[in-house]
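Here we describe the complex-level prediction in full. Unlike the single-chain runs in Section 2.1, the two entities below were treated as one system.
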Amino acid sequence: MAAAFMAYPELRHPFEAKPIHAEGSTSVLYQGRQITLSDTSADKASGSSLLIKPEDLKHINGFELKPEGACYADMCIPLTSKLQVTQEGTQWFDLTAFADLLEQPYVFDAESNVWSFAEIPAKRDNMMVNGLAPDFEIPDRQGNVIRMTDLKGKKALIVTWSSW
Amino acid sequence: MPVWQQVYEEINDPDFVILCVAEDTGGEAVAGPIFDAANATYIQIVDKNHIISSAFNFVNVPSAAWIDEEGRIVRIDEGTYAKVHELGDETRSITFGNDVYTPALRDWVEKGSDSEYVQTVETVTGNIRELSFEQQKADAAFRLANLFREHGLTQKAEHYWNLTQTLNPESINFFRQNLTLSEEGSAGETFMTRRGEYESQQKDYYRPLDMDS
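The structure predicted for the assembly as a whole is:
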């Protein structure tokens, strides 16, 4: 077997130990962003749910709370008692129940209090069914945020590669 | 990436853009110098969390999608090489890639929907990979691992990278990206063994190009 190739061996463990968030906070990962929340709760019985302040929802996944439900583009999910939870007079939104309802996968690391959410499948129906390019939002190397919608009117080749 | 720069300059159409996306947890430190060396003028993205691969259900690099002016995908998910590449020395050499993809791309940029390389909605949606719930969950595990790695929590990173691969064993991207942290690297014995398994099982390492060569 030929010698292994590793382009950047010095980068194997390039990062320094530093806190993920302030003590007592909770972080949510979604679409490559880390949203840190100082005020969250959990289901008292199971302890394995993530309850957020209703106003934090739109900062996490773009869904806005309206009278007709939690809405994103032309999709509205009716608010049930499963999604809206009141504990000692405080109103919470159950982000994990919302994910379960939408069949959105997530992974939770209890020790560090970080929840990582995959994409919401309903946001991708237009691609899977109609062959339309999915929405994404990602910074380029110059720091400009590139969105799929910015490319309208142009033909685009989107091509991936890697250094490895 | 000099080859895509060359293609971009040759096509030279103001209504055509290339988004060249580095799927690299190492970030700017590893991908940036390669873009710089190519004198890239197309849109350059360093995608530490493989967001773009997730968006299009890609499982390997290089992979690509062609998007028309209306936001429709007209080709997707092929092993995307702009030319025939040769690597190696006197004792050992490999060639990979093809000489049909770039002319096809140029044809599409010139002719738009009249290009013979534009695929129907049915073909495109048929070519988009279906990912199971577990495979989609792998994206969440992968990003959690990356967060831990960035914060120096290497054991936790390792744990979630292993979970990632358990959840989505079909992803070459996750498999090889994780190997970059090993002593042997992403193209060592483990990788060659896996690739050999693919070939012996006659599984596609890339979906073959649907173009005449």
